[in-house]
Amino acid sequence: MDFIQKLQVFTAVVEFQSFARAAESLRLTRPSVTIAINELEKEVGVRLLHRTTRRTTLTGDGRVYLDQARLTLSAVDEARSFFNAYIAEPSGKLRVDMSNSIARSVIIPRISRFLALYPKVELALGVSDQQVDLVAEAVDCVLRVGELASTSLVSRLVHRTPTVTCASPDYLKEHGTPQSLEDLENHVGIVYFHGRNRKVKEWQFTIEGKSQSIRMKPALMINDHDACVECALKGLGLAQIGSIGIQNELAAGHLVPVLSHLDAGTMPVSILYPARNHLPPKVRAFLDWTISIFAEYAEDQARGSNKAN
């Protein structure tokens, strides 16, 4: 077994957390998997895996080496298919992660069309507002709402969603409707935080061309879009949310916009993927499809807004 094959065995054992299941997925015998891991550990000079009778886990060195192994295997795949980049039919497992609001409002209602276009793509869809490490978690691309932190990933802007400051009718009935930024001092907000350092997102407004940031007094802090919407619906406070996930609630009057005369700006919707000289056909197909459906989504929203007016 050559070195690349040993790396494939190693990543499979990590994915399945089992020598037996890795052997089954690779159509190898259990002893051959064990031999491959032993030889790989000798070649790299460190122990990569902890083995017990019940489970297999990464050592500290193994966690570090896993990223390198995945990068190497990805580079090998790219080199193997280099000349087929634009003619090969998209195929294989495609791992995509995205925010709850994007999945529920845009992607999932249309995902059957992508699957019909590319029947050989096996789509694994992760839905979460939490940040993911694309390399460490073997994710091909992610879709996110909001300003992006500095990153080595390639990013493409696919949409801008208006930001809405809103609350439930019950909250406004009890606490009153704010008419100015100064009025916000008498209100509490459902405050969004994100990232491993739990950075709190300040509310943004633009007045006479000048940007103003407001740090709301929190009713509670939360890091999930759908949970933030639910808290607003329960009347726990004001919320400032991208409209991409709350059109139905606004249309039904379950959430009421406030401070609409003030410009709260927009939030970018971006697709991110690792920098590569050669983008796999399955990733390119999803990227192009995503751009096209967000253009369609924007047109649908514009038509709906015109009807409302």
What is CATH's topology name of the largest domain?
D-Maltodextrin-Binding Protein, domain 2
Percent in strands = 25-35%
* Highest CATH level, the class of the largest domain: Alpha Beta
Beginning-to-end CA distance, first to last residue: 68 Å
Instruction: Say which CATH homologous superfamily of the largest domain is assigned.
Output: Periplasmic binding protein-like II
How many DSSP helices? 10
Q: What does the main sheet amount to?
A: 7 strands, mixed
Helix content: 25-40%
User: What value does the Rg take, in angstroms?
Assistant: 24 Å
Structural class by secondary-structure content: alpha+beta
Assembly of the depicted chains: single chain
Family: Belongs to the LysR transcriptional regulatory family.
Organism: Pseudomonas fluorescens
InterPro entries: LysR-type_TF_proteobact-type, LysR_HTH_N, LysR_subst-bd, WH-like_DNA-bd_sf, WH_DNA-bd_sf
Protein name: LysR family transcriptional regulator
Report a brief summary of the structure.
This protein is of the alpha+beta class. The chain contains ten helices and 14 strands. Helix 1 crosses helix 2, helix 1 packs across helix 3 and helix 2 crosses helix 3.
Describe the structure.
With 309 residues, the chain is of the alpha+beta class. It has 3 domains: 3-84, Arc Repressor Mutant, subunit A (Orthogonal Bundle); 92-149 and 270-306, D-Maltodextrin-Binding Protein, domain 2 (3-Layer(aba) Sandwich); 161-266, Periplasmic binding protein-like II (D-Maltodextrin-Binding Protein, domain 2, 3-Layer(aba) Sandwich), CATH 3.40.190.10. It contains 10 helices and 14 strands. Strands 3, 4, 5, 6, 12, 13 and 14 form a 7-stranded mixed β-sheet that branches. A hairpin with a 4-residue loop joins strand 7 and strand 8. Helix 2 (19-26) crosses helix 3. The protein starts with a helix and ends with a helix. 29% of the residues are buried.
